[in-house]
Amino acid sequence: MSYLSRESSPLGEALWNQIDETVINTARKALVGRRFLKIFGPLGIGTQSIHIDDYENLDENYDNGFITTKGRKYVEIPTIYDDFTLFSKDLENCKQFGYPIDLSRAAYSAEECSRKEDRLIFFGNQSYGYEGLLTASGINKIERKDWATGENAFSDIVSALELFTQKGIYGSYALIMSPDLYTQLQRIQQGTGLLEIERIRNLVGGNLYNTSVLGTGKAALICPEQRNMDLVIGQDLATGYLEQKDFNHSFRVLETVLLRIKRKQAITVFE
């Protein structure tokens, strides 16, 4: 039996294909972190941990015939999941009358898993020792001015780019912000004839994203080259069968995923 336990369900292949299509298409629209982070994997559900190297301190220690790696740690790849149920009477009704099956519950679970993945990417999980882009120790921080006024946003981002240059961090850049800051930039900048958001978009090579996961008043500029960070995927987003209970069918949408930050100086947070 496979890990997802689909063989134990009475559902046909056609329904499983519909569930897979719904979950994957929903996640593609909802996920934000995967739009700018490089993917390492999928490695398979059996991969339970991965090493994270600290680029600034990585080295080998030699001590009387004993070698260890400085700046490297092994971290468990956590599982993210959300469950949903399909009612047997609904499935029978669709079969009897030829109605399409409503898979809204599967879509909701895919959206919830997407939000959980992005929260892990941006904020980590302090309780279990996982760091996020906005919460990792040792990242750059710049005091954010009022982005609704003048050229404050533009000058803040220029300052962050200059900081990267000083630290020798080059490559593509991505700016991620909360929706309120994104909305504040939807205005014509006096003397330019351009929306402030367009000036900034050009500044970061078009790689500009906003997500409600950040809440309000938060933004970060990163250099997401794979040498600096990546997203490790063990089991990519998939749906498994849990059980039949009270004649209804229970499912789990799940994935194993971990943000791996290798160079913390490639992250600048505006706060």
TrEMBL record:
Subcellular location: Encapsulin nanocompartment
A GO CC annotation given for this chain: encapsulin nanocompartment
Pfam family, one: Linocin_M18
Entries under InterPro entries matching the protein: ENCAP, Encapsulin_nc
Principal location class: other
Keywords: Encapsulin nanocompartment
Family, as annotated: Belongs to the encapsulin family. Family 1 subfamily.
Entry protein name: Type 1 encapsulin shell protein
